[in-house]
Amino acid sequence: MSVLARSVGNAFRNKVRTGAVVAVLAVAISLALSMLVANQAVAAKVTELNASVGTVLTVNPAGGQGFEGGGEPLTAEQAATAAAVPNVSSVVGTKALRLRNATEAAAQSAAGTQGAGTQAAGPGGGQGGPGGQTTTTLTTSLTAAVDAGTLGGRNQAAEGTTGSTAATQPVRSLPITATGIGAEVDSTGKALEITEGTGLGDYTAESTNALLGTTLAEKNGLKVGSTFTINDKTYTVAGLFDAGTTFGNNALYITLSSAQTLAELPGELSTMIVTVDTLENVDSTKTALQSALGTDKADVTQGQNLETAVSSLDSVKNISFIAFVAALGTAGLIILLIMVMLVRERRREIGVLKAIGAPNRTIGFQFVLEALVLVALGSVVGAAVASFASGGIASALISSNSSTTAATTGRGMPGGAAGFPGGAGLPSGGPFGGASQLLTTVTASASPGVIAAGIAAVFGVAIIGALVPALLTARIRPIEVLRGE
Amino acid sequence: MIEVKNLVRTFKSGDRTIKPVNDVSFELEQGTLASIVGKSGSGKSTLLSLLGALDKPTSGDVVVNGVSLASMPDGKLTEYRRRDIGFVFQQFNLIPNLSAVDNVMLPMEFAGIRKAARLARAKELLEQVQLDPEKHVRRINRLSGGEQQRVAIARALANEPKLILADEPTGNLDEQTGEHIIELLSSLSHDHNTTILVVTHDRSLANKTDRRFRLQQGRLVEEPARASVGAAASS
Ligand SMILES: Nc1ncnc2c1ncn2[C@@H]1O[C@H](COP(=O)(O)OP(=O)(O)O)[C@@H](O)[C@H]1O
Ligand SMILES: [Mg+2]
Is the pLDDT of residue A422 over 50? Predict the structure, then answer.
């Protein structure tokens, strides 16, 4: 009979107790494994999200977080400063314009609701306070694809200046967003998905080419090659793009220089889209960029959707990691306590082993092995439970977290009010509930590798837990054998 | 050769100090079969535990073949117990959930003897103490007191110790088995040059030993043995 066989035998000496200990261990171990699985799944998702859009930083003028910005506008010099920051691989400037249908604007003027001269420096939106940056409003031959009515009260930009005559005005459309871009990316830095036609060619030069959102083109019956006007200047549709959202498709893109010329504000930028060379450098570059531009001049943010989703996922990751460690610690503690109890109970027997010449290390080893037999049984049961339960536990964790996110979503549509921190302390929210959409796509599956790593950790903790009682056996003296004689 | 020099063991119980072993000195030549008699509580078990290095004396020393136990570190004492001592306890002290044969194999396992060799020797020893072969693999807690005592004796013999310390080894055995155990111990001492110290109440066993001691109030007195040994030998 070997030490191992003896340890296995000892583990089963009291079957009822062994069963109870294994059951309790299995609960702790399955919880630990489930938490590890959830943690790994979320970590994988975070990496994936970071990898997808993660290297893009957005720079807005200080004081305005929204699409159209506020405060002092950004300048070409600042773009050059940004480009000089280490690890920045590209800086793309954008200039946002607001377009209103010429006929509508004329009708409004005719109704006398607005003073003269509103065309060049039109009504400030909800964002632009006194002294803030006002987005240039121009007229166009296009009709918006989104009705003001469909967006209800959020349509501040359209209704904000109409004052007391609001009740008498006809149903009007939202303004169309025209963005001048310095490269073929949208206003969040993602590459434009051109569905028909071509891009704008040289994005740094002035041109009369434009890219239209699919719904906007459809609403106006325009195709690639058709023409329309902005401030009576004729533009040609070079291509159509699909931004994936109704709002995003009620927009058009022209080159940056064209937009600056239209606005009569050369060298002025609404936002800068900064691409960092690697994912690892994003955090440090964000800090460097912020200090290079100055906090009073510019706000540097990471892709908005992403940032909120990732921080929400990060908290799930942290919670699950803490729970994993706690469950692991519990398993270790259970082993420690049960083994201390067993050592006390077998004091005399340990005395016998010592009296017949067993070295301390042999006895200690036997007790550690006995603990590991219990842990092995607990792990088998725990892993079985975890492989069924971990998916449910992970999604419960994530959905409870993302529902918090959804409830506290503060940021509205682009152009609406800026976001505010969530009530639960989690930075939250995102246009169209993007964060929670991203979250629900996390799939937690108990992969053999993760389970194996978890069980290895359980065994490590169990060995530590069993070492204490095993060392206690060394203190038992052989004379214990005569106790009670 | 075992030399016991002014051995003292005291215990404190409350504010009272008891001295079950009080200045005990004697010498035993290798191969001697000796017995100790004495009333219950006279300190016999305490004396054996000091000789077997289960306990440390308050003062005095035990010298085994020139080596002093008092100066030995704990690791060496463990080795001494494993290699040089065979202990038969008053209450057997076998491992209850192991079989008879596994119990006998334990000291050999600690001594690093190969499995096949220790199994063969364990069976041989159990036959020597006349344990039914079918009970060799039976768990200890399914054996009677007498059977357990025989397993305990077999275990004490496992590593062929130089000194066997037996505390009431025949106390739980019927007369016939007791006789057999006495013969076994006596042949071990004479044929295998093993020193044996037996604590006993059994007159006939004491009479068959080479030297007889009596422990009284912590002090060891040797009784003249010649006549009884001669009588036992002539019977
Ligand atoms: N660990 C101990 N603590 C206190 N007293 C003890 C201890 N061990 C033995 N004794 C006492 O020492 C005396 C001798 O005990 P023991 O050697 O077992 O006697 P015997 O074996 O001769 O019956 C008894 O009075 C006993 O109560
Ligand atoms: Mg006794």
Answer: no
* Residue A269 and residue A348 in one domain: no
- In angstroms, rounded to a whole number, what is the distance separating the alpha carbons of residues B18 and A450? 63
One domain, residues A314 and A426: yes
- Judgement on whether residues A257 and A133 belong to the same structural domain of the protein: yes
Domain ranges of chain B: 2-234
Atom of ligand 1 nearest to the CA of B43: 17
Choose, out of A17, A366, A482, the residue to mutate when testing the contact with B (most B CBs < 10 Å). Answer: A482
Confirm or reject CATH 3.40.50.300 for domain B2-234, answering yes or no: yes
Residues A194 and A228 in one domain: yes
- Write down the pTM of the prediction: 0.66
What does pLDDT average to over chain A? 77
Percentage of residues in chain B having pLDDT higher than 90: 69
Q: Kindly tell me if the per-residue pLDDT of A437 is higher than 80.
A: no
Boundary-marking domain end, from A252, A273, A302: A302
Neighbours of ion ligand 2 (CB under 5 A): B 45
Cβ density class B162-174: b for 16+ within 10 Å, e for less: bbbbbbbbbbbbe
State the residue range of the domain holding A253.
57-302
The three-state (H, E, C) secondary structure of B74-87, written as one string = HHHHHHHHHHCEEE
* Smallest CA separation from ligand 1 atom 7, residue: B11
Asked if B4 and B32 touch (Cβ cutoff 8 Å), the reply is no
What order do you get walking across the sheet with B2-13 strand by strand?
B16-28, B2-13, B59-64, B67-68
Counting ligand 1 atoms within 8 A of each CB, the residue from B12, B18, B24, B199 with the most, and so the one to mutate, is: B18
Question: What pLDDT was estimated at residue A117?
Answer: 42
Nearest CA, atom 2, ligand 1: B11
**Same domain, residue pair A42 and A105:** no
When divided into structural domains, chain A yields a total of 2
pLDDT per residue as tens digits for the range B203-234: 888 888 999 999 998 999 998 855 544 444 44
Contact residues of ligand 1, CB 6 A cut-off: B 11, 13, 18, 20, 38, 40-46
Q: Is the pLDDT of residue A37 over 60?
A: yes
Nearest CB among B83, B91, B110 relative to A359 is that of B110
Q: What is the DSSP letter of B187?
A: H
